[in-house]
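Class, discuss our next protein.
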Amino acid sequence: MQIGRIEGCTRVLGKSQGYIGLPLRDVVINCTVGGVGTPAMETAWFPTPKEIEAINAGAPVILRVVGTGHPPVMLFVGEVPA
């Protein structure tokens, strides 16, 4: 997957730690657990043609979280580019 620059980016995480840098946008969501006004962060990822082929053949999309604690996450498909 290729890191994308998400529309409305509000900050970039990880670059000072030696990572490539992850552009994200801060949002507020209505969460069934956290309630209305729950802060969240969104990032954009673009699969390569080879990854798209694998997904279409039934391969899963895997979310890897670095560390030993797993925060709540959501994974979904964004808008089709205009």
